[in-house]
Batch of 2 targets.
Target 1
Amino acid sequence: MTRSAVILIASLVSLVPLGCQTAPVSNRPPSSTNRVGETQTLETRKLNQRDLEDFAAELAEGLIRSGRLVPFDDQGPPLVLVSRFINEGSRGTMHIDRNRVFARVLDALNRAGVATAYVDDDPAVEALRRDAAARGEPLPSPDYSVVLRLYEDRASVGRIDQFQYILQMQVAALDGPRAGSMVWSEEREVAKQAPRGGAVGL
Amino acid sequence: MTRTGRKFEWSAAGVFAIGTLLLSGCAQPPASVNTVGPAERRAIPTPVADERLITDEVFAQAAVITGLIEGITPDGLRIVEAEVQNATRAHAPFKYRTAWFDERGLEVRAPTVVWRHVVLPPGAIRRVSAVAPTASAYDFRMEFYSDR
């Protein structure tokens, strides 16, 4: 083997580890906590809160896109009551915080300016409603109500478990010519597969 | 000696045949989505001239963005839709997000700006869309990220 060939091989071999090195070396201890970004969060075996909040935001966007929230008077955008979260899922979904899911819907509708959305869980607003009703001047009632429903389907084949979750948003008119009927509905679903007992998370 | 040799030849041929069959079974391409639609389309989409910044060449060639169109919601909010085609023979999982900007170029933050997950079957063509979160959000930037 010629000397130049030896030098070439040696230089190539020295380059191999450089090619494999994809990230700079961290000076943190291995056991320390890392702050991660949105695209680095753990994919859990079952439904996580973040999945559901993102679905709620998507559904709210779908409702905005549909243009079905029309006002029944000239007082501006219609009043929308985000009223219920019905959880038809198993015990594994009981950790879901409905208020955080509602917050996404409220925020999306209000920012878009297509509705004035609210929830019925503010004691101050409730007191105001009671006082106004007692005076004989009730506050405006909602034009639409939004109900969110969560469903879960589970299937297993061999050593694989599959968890499927469906979040459905239903909008009913409470005023106008279609009062009492559903005017819009849409759903999002996610299916997760994991080896039995082998995944991280819930 | 000859008979033994012939036996060997037969068994070798058998193994070769079985091997070929197995290999041909393995080599069969996976299922891929076929699509059909009208040759003359009634819809007249409004295409958007796009500018791309590709940092993941492999993913860009796998999930090909074939078009970008826009529209307006009944309430006057801008809608954008990108058409993505899976050009591979495997499922293509990816995330996408749409950032929005106002008329001064400032980013409009909103709860609807989230990473959305899509799994595109082989050969499939799908539209991914976003609605401007406010009336002041006009310009946009769609980001696509491989989730392999």
Target 2
Amino acid sequence: MLEGLQLAFEPASLIALVTGLALGLVFGAIPGLTATLGVALLVPITFIMEPAPGMIMLLGVYAGSIYAGSITAILLRIPGTPASIPTMWDGYALTEQGKPRLALGTAAVASGIGGLFSGLVLIFLSPLLADVALKFGPAEYVAIVLFGLLVVTAVLGGSMVRSAAGVFIGLSLALVGLDPLEGFARLDGGFYELGGGLEVVPVLLGIFCLTEAIRMAAKAKDDSPATGTAQLDEGRRTPTAKELLKNKWNFARSSLIGTGLGIIPAVGPETTPFVSYAAAKRASKEREKYGRGSIEALISAETSNNANVGGSLIPLLTLGIPGSAVAAVFLGALTLQGLRPGPLLFAEQPALIGALFTGFLLINALMLVGGVLFVRQFAIVLRLPVAVLATLVALFSILGAFAVGNNVFNIWVMFAAGALAFVLQVARIPIAPVVLALILGPLLETNLTKALTISRGDWAVFVTSPLALVFLILGALFLTLPVVKRVVRRSWTTPGPEANADQDATGRADARQNDGEERRAPRP
Amino acid sequence: MLSETIRYPAPTNLYPSVVLGATVALALLVAIQNLRNTETFGPSDQGRTSAGLRPAAFAAVWLSYPLVLIAVGFLISTVVAIGLSLWLLRVKHLLAYVVASLPTAALLLVGLQVLFNVAVPQGFLDLLITDFVYSL
């Protein structure tokens, strides 16, 4: 470990760390450029570097791009990654209230704390937690995906029917492409480009970036900037010590959720912030502030986001199981260096592992400090005239969609997704469940088929596995508790003319509130 | 075409059938809710969907950009799209922006082609710049 510390603090490693982090920020902030693309592009460069600085640079890109996704989400209502969607709800609301500095600073602090927590877990509990990842079979995957979808349905508030409709629209979109079991084409409309299914990045760009560009175009007046220039110089940029202390359990819970779900391959990155957001909202005394610029909500989403990065490294390094596309590329980079992730790596290369772990902690510490210090520089984008911003967002969205597969077809997919977003908005169907279901759909279908094949069609497989059962019960509780609470509250109200009048008024007020909530803050 | 591609062999048709069936049912339910409560039907955020012509024209410019991109290459199509879009949005100092967009597009082209390995469609000017960069 001491040798690892020395390796991590060598000038070459520190330069690689800063370079990786800076590149990650660029990749995360530009719509369409993903963490996977960033890491993949740098793999050939790491081949000519020493293993420790090379891998630290890739870690910097990974962590930096996940954090940077929140910068555009907060400033422009464009989530850099699907994991930044919950960040966008409250972060952008704070920007609209004239507090972009506070939103960015809070996101940096929360990201740093979440990342540091997962880094410590990575150092001290890796081998222990790696066993958990191995306990997840098809039935458990089905349960955890259903849990994620139930949580997102419950967390949005408002009409559950609309949220459920969003989930099923997303699952339907995920059906496009080849059947995972028998490989025949379905719902592809004859377009061979859809054989591999809908690419998520163009869909996200269409739903979030294109619609935002058009919204900005509608708002553009003369050369007016996106926000008042004074707002960027005024107000605090970090939460107060009192606010941080008030959120101590929020930090702990979100870090645990982030790291815990990160350990489970393929599920974590997108689901994590939604689960964390839902858990925080459930535990909060100020639920009504969620979605309207709540610091607490922002902390829950961002802490879990970056805690997930460290969690996802546990199965990768200890078992050689890549949990996400980025992790798979990272695995390739390690292999290129002649290293084979798994238990032997810890025994054969303790110095390298020590350097990687130390580097990961340093990256998160630097992200925390740098994120707070450079808030003003990040927010400078808001000084641009809205017209210029709209043009740039439209241009980068199209180029980002093209870059995914080097083909124009993805640009049309992006436009179609933009049109779908408009239709959903008119129909008042929230977009977040659509996106999450689109991402998790293939995982659900593949594992459902696998689980039923293994159990020879016996559906009891989902309740006989304790892990699966726990996730299904938790999901059901998330979904039903608000309804049960409402019913209990109503049954406790004393009957009588006055009480009835009150109840009626409350009921109507609730309805108005829900309606108003939907009107004021249309969730993505 | 759709009816052909929507058929599934018996063993694997359960999941897609359930998903599509539920989607249709829930969409109908939402539609009925919207029709019953016409107050809540329609775009929700006042600022979000302006019925103006400018955003529509702006969208049209960027919708046609991929077609022009294939026909004339990255540099010219990008400069034209940026110029048109800024003109539509009535930005001040339009000429300055358009002039600035030329080196910006050239830099983007080099960045995409050389650094990110993104092979954007190239016209005469694009090929000239790319060849020059590689010759360096």
